[in-house]
Amino acid sequence: MTAPPFVRWVLLGLFCALLAGLGIHSATAQDQAAGWALLRQPSHAVFMRHSEAPGYADPPGLSLDDCSTQRNLVDSGRAHARRTGEAFRRNGITFQRVLTSPWCRCKETARLAIGQDADVFAPLSNLIGRQQHAAEQIAALKAYLASLDGNARVLFVTHGVVINALTGISPASGEMVIVRLGPSGDVIVAGRLLVD
Among the four 66, 95, 99, 106, which has the fewest Cβ within 10 Å? Predict the structure, then answer.
């Protein structure tokens, strides 16, 4: 006894959806493997957006010395930063230098991911409400990248708006954008990586 045509179409659709889902998972796994391979190459730098801190801009009265005046990581963001650190260790990734924006959500992301405080680097500062500093900060970041020894591996923890201004990419919370500097000083995006 054969199934009615409608049932066959439904089953075929489910089977195709399953195959597509497996393909997406496989592509994601391949992308992850490629990202980790890039991180092992010392000629690449990593710009990581801070982990989840709901909202857009900081509240009025922001003080960089007082985390209570800023948007901060939520528990899921803290957990993601820790998972990212575990993934670094599992994949044998170490950084010679870790630099962070002075904003608390970036400093906390870096600390949870690498297990110690990172060095504050002003050119990684948030640009929301401070767009007049964008050209200066991006020039400073490019100059820093150009000054790196070819064997250096550096992690920069910053804000999505800074990564977008530097690379044209708007990363998800906690996402890493892997870059290298081109021969003419332009920033080339080599890959992206987001720990699950």
Answer: 66
The percentage of the chain sitting over the pLDDT mark of 90, rounded to a whole number, equals 65
Among 188, 154, 162, 194, smallest CA distance to 176 is for 194
Strands across the sheet containing 154-158: 119-120, 97-100, 154-158, 45-49, 176-181, 187-193
Residue with tokens 């949870």: 112
Cα angle: 140, vertex 37, 172; to 5 degrees: 55
CA pair distance 17, 9, nearest whole angstrom: 12
CATH class for the domain made up of 40-193: alpha beta
Is the four-CA dihedral 13, 14, 16, 20 of positive or negative sign?
Answer: positive
Q: 40-59 burial, b if ≥16 CB within 10 A, otherwise e?
A: eeeebbbbbbbbbbeeeebe
Report helix angle 75-90 to 104-114, nearest 10: 40
> What is the structure's pLDDT at 29?
61
